[in-house]
Amino acid sequence: MNCIIVDDEATARLIVNQLCATIPDLDVIDEFSSAIEAIKFLNQHTVDVIFLDIHMPGFTGFDFVQTLKNPPKIVLTTSDTNFAIAAYEYESIVDYLVKPITQERFEKSIHKVKNSLSQQPKTNSNKTNSLVGDELYINIDRRLIKIKFDEILLIEAKGDYIDVKTEKELHRVHNTLKKIKEKLPEELFLQIHRSYIINFTKIIDIEDNSVLIDKNVVPISRSNRPELMRRLNLL
Amino acid sequence: MEERPNLLYIKKLAGEDKAFEEKFIAIIKAEFPLEQKEYLSYIASKRYKETSEIVHKLKHKLNILGLEKSYRLAVQYEEELHDSNTALEEEFKTILENIEDFIKTI
Q1: Which of A11, A28, A77 has the highest number of chain B CBs within 10 A, making it the mutation to test binding with B?
Q2: Which of A82, A148, A225, B24 is most deeply packed, by most CB within 10 A?
């Protein structure tokens, strides 16, 4: 079993490292003082467990968990007890350790992680292959108009309608953002706001709370920001 | 009576591993003075959000050093700083000085 440690405090990382060293089949493969660095690492490596501090500057442990598409098992480490209830809302969080962590409590946590790992399905290799093309047909005035996915810039909710903006034109369709989202390939599209889905490959730049796509400035909601950050190939 | 910082928790975790204990002491000797300085600078400039952040960071060290009462005070102080309440400023300063003195002895 391997793990990483994410905590902005060097003393805290050292202590978790020491606790891990007492577990024979647990390897610490890396440790990070910043959540962003850890996310970059996780985009390229697979781990079984993350020991994660909840309280880090600019990025809570919960933000971190939300950025991970297939999160490994997570053990939260914290000085506060008042986040415990929130932790139970995340399936990937298997335990909640309050600092200073004792040896006995740590061993119990490892036991929980092992139990949880043994219960999860091994792989998801029998995923259904569907013959989805690279286009979408939208119904406008009883005509079915073909739009290629890679031509779509963004989709905006407008009351009972949605605006599908392509590089050349804008189509207003009587439909919902939720319905069209189901038809779009996840690797190209991302909902970044309650009213906006964007083609991820068309982003020109990102500022604090908005992205620029062609000439459109699109707001990013706080809850969708972690997923956007996760999808970025950050340098 | 004033609590005295100690290394009981660290020694228990270390067991026979002297290298761990030494590494911990080296880190706390390097980090604590910087965090104390940072704290004093923030509180002096009334930057309460930043002050509460650094109190949060420091309170973990109080915990490790066996300062249970001081830890509870730090929890309350951190909370009160969110409302710009600095009533516990002097007491917290004394706790930091207490640790500063202890660190000189290890």
Answers
A1: A11
A2: B24
